[in-house]
Design goal:
11 strands; 7-stranded mixed β-sheet
Amino acid sequence: QVQLVESGGGLVQAGGSLRLSCAASGSSFSINAMGWYRQVSGKQRELVARIFSGGSAYYADSVKGRFTISRDNAKKTVYLQMNSLKPEDTAVYYCNVVAVTGPNYWGKGTLVTVSS
């Protein structure tokens, strides 16, 4: 069984920074992609950023230039450095891991609140 443990959410003022972390543990498995989604109540969950095993990354247009995703393969950990935060970044952020064999795993979510 795979578990994802997220940390780093919280309350920050607009213009501030936060760093999210997500560590995967459990059954032995190889990871393909690691990423972060976010969801606002009443809206669909959206992809924020994703990083693949080779290091290539994807960012949603809304966060390009402000957020940086990185991963430590040895620790099976993914990070999301969020700078220049805006009130519209307020959401629950979910860690997502896609195994090489296909299964998707999700964290429980961490709340990020950006005050104006």
